[in-house]
Amino acid sequence: MQSLLLHALKMLDVGKWPIFSLCSQEELKLIRQACVFGSAGNEVLYVTENDEVFVLGMNCSGCLGTGDVQSTIEPKRLDSLCGKKIACLSYGSGPHVVLATEEGEVYTWGHNAYSQLGNGTTNHGLVPCQVSTNLVNKKVIEVACGSHHSMVLTSDGEVYTWGYNNSGQVGSGSTANQPIPRRVTSCLQNKVVVNIACGQMCSMAVVENGEVYVWGYNGNGQLGLGSSGNQPTPCRIAALQGIRVQRVCVLQGWGTHSFSGQLCQEPDDHLTVAQSLKKEFDNPETADLKFLVDGKYIHVHKVLLKIRCEHFRSILNNDDEIIEMSEFSYPVYRAFLEYLYTDSIRLPPEDAIGLLDLATLYRENRLKKLCQQTIKQGICEENAIALLSAAVKYEAQDLEEFCFRFCINHLTVVTQTQGFAEMDHDLLKNFISKASRVGAFRN
């Protein structure tokens, strides 16, 4: 999710990345720039010495830009980007990809459920397309991506954002998603920005005098403002007064730290039990069972599944080798199986509802709680009613109360959405009754 200067990723031995084992030695020798991305490092974009652009890997949400969503174990050339001289690239959780060329053009593709591609739609982008709306005659020199929002910096020091905005990460002053690039103004109106970065659901910018401005999700105090309330517009970090900052990045020095322990430990060859289990997930060399979901295999170990899940204790047989699964999508079922190995989930909020359905069906109460936490992070006015409906359906009481409170706090906007207009009759009656009891309709 961080902005990646491809020149900085020039490595002496790209073959150390597992994904490059699919390339021949002749192909590896030609690589000049490379970026490995995706939640498991299963996708890669690389540039050769003669400025040809190739992609390889899983292709989740069409993030390889090949025109389809089919995985590829052979490098495919992206003709539309060949010769463009890629300057910087960033990617989100979907993943979606944003890159800028040396000429300052911006191209996006991949996951687009929240308009993070900036093309005014929510259709996934299967090929790289130039983003021109509000960026005409602008030269983009830096790009950054959060989970589902995008940000660019122009050569004249202006910042433009678009995409998911449930926590104010777009900096528009509202929590409505932003379908096309919009200039971030407010406190940055007359400032010259020199550097940008994105967290998962927050954004930050450094101006030419070294001040740092932040906005977006702040539930754990990660913005460094001395509070835990979300910030819908840029706000200067007063605690850095007198310190001239040059660059910002996505590491957190305050608030919740998602990568705790990974950046500052002494090298240690010893793996804990938890680390060993995590490493073995989807390992075809040691697995004794494969799940076939949406035409893709997930490799697992019967004994671990039986230890971790009551559902599997009752259905697995010793002679099972392949089990075909059609009830749930590949991202959802993969996330569930990975949870059994790691006790955590890695899934976008929009897919977490499917995982909540699975957790309810399999009676996995801890997983159900984790799903609710993830779904909460993805709530906005447009989907609040849908999430409330899902919470009621799957008897997720904590999520139901959270969604209800969100709807009450954003009642005017929520009641004008398509979701509210199509709300189930019984759910609508209960909603109005409960809203009345908490005084939502008082003048």
UniProtKB/TrEMBL annotation:
<protein>
    <recommendedName>
        <fullName>BTB domain-containing protein</fullName>
    </recommendedName>
</protein>
<dbReference type="InterPro" id="IPR000408">
    <property type="entry name" value="Reg_chr_condens"/>
</dbReference>
<feature type="repeat" description="RCC1">
    <location>
        <begin position="157"/>
        <end position="209"/>
    </location>
</feature>
<dbReference type="InterPro" id="IPR058923">
    <property type="entry name" value="RCC1-like_dom"/>
</dbReference>
<dbReference type="InterPro" id="IPR000210">
    <property type="entry name" value="BTB/POZ_dom"/>
</dbReference>
<dbReference type="InterPro" id="IPR011333">
    <property type="entry name" value="SKP1/BTB/POZ_sf"/>
</dbReference>
<dbReference type="Pfam" id="PF00651">
    <property type="entry name" value="BTB"/>
</dbReference>
<feature type="domain" description="BTB">
    <location>
        <begin position="287"/>
        <end position="349"/>
    </location>
</feature>
<dbReference type="InterPro" id="IPR011705">
    <property type="entry name" value="BACK"/>
</dbReference>
<dbReference type="InterPro" id="IPR009091">
    <property type="entry name" value="RCC1/BLIP-II"/>
</dbReference>
<dbReference type="InterPro" id="IPR051625">
    <property type="entry name" value="Signaling_Regulatory_Domain"/>
</dbReference>
<dbReference type="Pfam" id="PF25390">
    <property type="entry name" value="WD40_RLD"/>
</dbReference>
<keyword id="KW-0677">Repeat</keyword>
<dbReference type="Pfam" id="PF07707">
    <property type="entry name" value="BACK"/>
</dbReference>
<feature type="repeat" description="RCC1">
    <location>
        <begin position="210"/>
        <end position="264"/>
    </location>
</feature>
<feature type="repeat" description="RCC1">
    <location>
        <begin position="104"/>
        <end position="156"/>
    </location>
</feature>
